[in-house]
């Protein structure tokens, strides 16, 4: 041995992630006991007109945005539930395009009827409003929530000034 490198991490979860990344990056020749066949989950925001947000274990280089990796799947699922509840993004597998929506090819699903989706498939929400929801979800996933909190508070105050208390409650 000529030299030894030590990398300090803050937690056991970070150590597992570092080990996983180093094994995949360096591909040690005699990695008999430490073979890594598992992958950690990521949150994926698809690169579509009306993006979806979901968890995945495979990273595909198609322009989609990925957040992670997450070491605890339970925390990941909790984050996804919160994001979907707050911003009501779609969870369906439809190939939504503006032309197909204008032609009326799609119908709203159960998520729309139970207020878990805003119904972009039937133009119940505009593309710009939907993409604003996706942008806000990205802020939460990246941890940049201070600006988002201020923006939501100002929108809530504006709605309450206009006497739209039900909408202000939803924003809150």
Short description:
With 172 residues, the chain is mostly helical. It has helices at residues 12-26, 73-87, 98-102, 110-113, 127-142, 146-161, 165-171; strands at residues 42-45, 53-56, 65-67. The mean pLDDT is 86.
Low-confidence stretches: none
Report Rg.
Answer: 21 Å
Query: Which percent band covers the strand fraction?
Result: 5-15%
Give me the count of strands: 3
Main sheet?
Answer: 3 strands, antiparallel
What is the percent of helical residues? 40-55%
Order of SSEs: HEEEHHHHHH
Please list the strands of the largest sheet in the order they lie side by side.
2-1-3
Provide key terms for this protein:
172 residues, mainly alpha, 3-stranded antiparallel sheet, 3 strands, 45% helix, 6% strand, globular
What can you tell me about this protein's structure?
Helix content is 45%, strand content 6%. With 172 residues, it is mainly α. A hairpin with a 7-residue loop joins β1 (42-45) and β2. α2 (73-87) packs antiparallel against α5 and α6 (146-161) packs antiparallel against α7 (165-171). The longest helix has 16 residues, at 127-142.
